[in-house]
């Protein structure tokens, strides 16, 4: 008889309670599970057939991410497909997924980053100039405006014009509409009961976004200089799959939506968390300012790494096992849904002494362990925009911290809230600017 391998233990509460605790108090819930069960445990989420096994041992995470044949657990599709579309690179699997990675990676590669520098500088510069002095405002929403502007410019080459102006507004509305877990739950329920209520309104908004995207695609197709343009949409239109075919308009829509949404919400949240941490730690802020004034970005990089460690924006980046996973006494059968618990991994005392302290210095000596620092997931599905996001964060932090005398509006650490699938600062990180300095002169040697 075939031996049935038991999954790691799970909390005694039912799936409703587990889902509510996961949704509203994710970090204390995970911490409690770690204390009770150790490195791996199972959770049951409402509406999901199979439990999700959470792991936090880097050796197990390595084994999970190194195996290319694993698929995706169902959560990603249920939550994201209505918005991103079924052809989104975030949702495709196997050969179809790999083919998109090949086409979509080049615009996010190292050397290409330089060309986005002035885009980020301009976007954040305009923001800084618009901030009030001596009046409290939440910096999270301002970061969303910056990162949306940057990704619009990177994707379309421009961000002006009435159509993109409308798109900018509509995308922000769609995200706000779906932001709170309460709206998501009501939305999913009302979807089941036909086309009324929040879901119908949301579908209407999505349709309007689609119309704008298709109009943008059509206009791009008609441009005579498509081959000379360096915006991401032009590059995607011209790139060929191995069989010589190209992406059709419906697929371009899904990939654009994916890049626009995946590319701005997460980065803005990571920036808001970084401001929360840096502004509450005076020695870090001082060292950061001194190193930036000296033109040295090593401490800035370490600060970003440390911020993404302590406040990872996404809690999970899971797989459905295509093959058995067996490592260090943990054996999970094919078909199991498994995800690294990103925050639990990042707060392991054996990897990070004083794991809850914010200490960028810990990354000055050397970078983090590949499978012990996973804010961008890993393996063949690792975040496509990781380099882009870190680059953008460096420029935004540099500009804001050198141009503004910035303070947290209150000294308390931000609590963790939820916005869409992200863990974000609950109050939006309120700050006060008490002084503003002129932008740096352009580097004449580089002109
Ligand atoms: C701090 C900011 C960001 C964080 C924390 C983040 C995090 C993640 C994570 C955890 C995944 C799943 C990886 C996995 O399953 O192993 C992912 C996937 C992805 N991200 Fe990001 N991301 C960020 C910024 C961006 C940006 C700026 C872009 C694009 C401009 C982007 C585009 C994508 C795409 C396309 C995928 C799907 C990759 C695939 O399935 O092959 N992300 N991201």
Essential attributes:
447 residues, alpha+beta, Cytochrome p450, 4-stranded mixed β-sheet, 3-stranded antiparallel β-sheet, 11 strands, 51% helix, globular, binds protoporphyrin IX containing FE
Topology:
Elements: H1 15-24, H2 26-37, E1 40-43, E2 52-55, H3 58-66, H4 74-84, H5 94-104, H6 110-113, H7 117-130, E3 137-138, H8 139-156, H9 162-177, H10 181-192, H11 197-221, H12 232-238, H13 249-280, H14 282-293, H15 298-310, E4 319-320, E5 325-327, E6 330-332, E7 337-340, H16 342-346, H17 386-403, E8 404-408, E9 416-419, E10 422-425, E11 430-436
Parallel strand pairs: 2-7
Antiparallel strand pairs: 1-2, 3-11, 4-7, 5-6, 8-11, 9-10
The structure holds protoporphyrin IX containing FE.
Residues 89-90, 101, 151, 258-259, 262-263, 266-267, 270, 313-314, 317, 375-378, 381-385, 388-389 line the site of protoporphyrin IX containing FE (HEM).
Quote the distance from N terminus to C terminus. 75 Å
* Mean of residue pLDDT values: 90
The CATH superfamily is Cytochrome P450
| List of distinct ligands in this structure | protoporphyrin IX containing FE
User: How does CATH name the architecture?
Assistant: Orthogonal Bundle
Question: What is the string of SSEs from the N terminus onward?
Answer: HHEEHHHHHEHHHHHHHHEEEEHHEEEE
Strand content: 5-15%
**Spatial arrangement of strands, main beta sheet:** 1-2-7-4
Q: Biggest sheet, open or closed, and with what strands and sense?
A: 4 strands, mixed
- The CATH class assignment is Mainly Alpha
Which parts are unreliable, with pLDDT below 50 for 5 consecutive residues or more?
none
Rg over CA atoms: 22 Å
The total count of helices amounts to: 17
Which class of secondary structure composition applies to the elements? alpha+beta
Write down the overall geometry: globular
Number of E strands: 11
Number of separate domains:
1
């Amino acid at each position: 008889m075939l031996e049935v391998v038991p999954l790691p233990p799970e909390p005694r509460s039912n799936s409703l309670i587990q889902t509510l605790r996961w949704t509203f108090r994710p970090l204390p819930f995970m911490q409690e599970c770690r204390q009770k069960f150790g490195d791996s445990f199972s959770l049951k989420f409402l509406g999901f057939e199979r439990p999700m096994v959470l792991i936090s041992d880097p050796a197990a995470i390595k084994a999970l991410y190194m195996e290319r044949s694993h698929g995706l657990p169902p959560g990603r599709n249920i939550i994201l497909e209505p918005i991103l579309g079924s052809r989104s690179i975030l949702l495709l699997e196997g050969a179809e997924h790999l083919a998109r990675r090949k086409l979509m990676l080049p615009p996010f590669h190292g050397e290409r980053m330089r060309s986005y520098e002035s885009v980020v500088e301009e976007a954040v510069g305009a923001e800084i100039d618009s901030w009030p002095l001596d009046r409290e405002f939440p910096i999270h929403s301002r970061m969303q405006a910056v990162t949306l502007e940057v990704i619009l410019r990177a994707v379309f080459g421009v961000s002006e014009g009435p159509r993109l102006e409308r798109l900018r507004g509509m995308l922000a509305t769609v995200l706000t509409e779906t932001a709170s877990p309460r709206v998501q739950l009501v939305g999913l329920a009302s979807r089941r009961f036909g086309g009324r209520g929040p879901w119908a309104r949301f579908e209407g908004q999505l349709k309007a976004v689609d119309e704008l995207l298709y109009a943008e695609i059509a206009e791009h197709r008609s441009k005579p200089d498509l081959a000379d343009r360096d915006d991401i949409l032009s590059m995607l239109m011209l790139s060929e799959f191995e069989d010589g075919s190209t992406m059709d308009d419906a697929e371009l829509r899904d990939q654009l939506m994916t890049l626009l949404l995946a590319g701005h919400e997460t980065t803005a949240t990571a920036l808001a968390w970084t401001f929360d941490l840096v502004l509450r730690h005076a020695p870090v802020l001082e060292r950061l300012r001194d190193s930036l004034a000296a033109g040295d970005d090593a401490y800035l990089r370490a600060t970003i790494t440390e911020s993404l460690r302590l406040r990872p924006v996404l809690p999970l980046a899971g797989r459905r096992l295509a093959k058995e996973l067996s490592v260090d006494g943990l054996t999970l059968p094919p078909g199991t849904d498994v995800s690294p618990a990103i925050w639990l991994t990042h707060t392991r005392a054996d990897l990070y002494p004083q794991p809850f302290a914010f200490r960028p210095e810990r990354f000055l000596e050397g970078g983090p362990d590949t499978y012990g620092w996973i804010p961008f997931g890993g393996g063949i599905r690792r975040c496509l925009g990781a380099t882009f996001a870190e680059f953008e964060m460096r420029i935004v932090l540099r500009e804001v911290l050198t141009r503004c005398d910035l303070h947290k509006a209150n000294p308390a650490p931000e609590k963790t809230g939820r916005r869409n699938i992200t863990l974000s600062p609950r109050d939006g990180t309120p700050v006060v600017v008490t002084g503003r300095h002129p932008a740096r002169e352009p580097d004449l040697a580089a002109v």
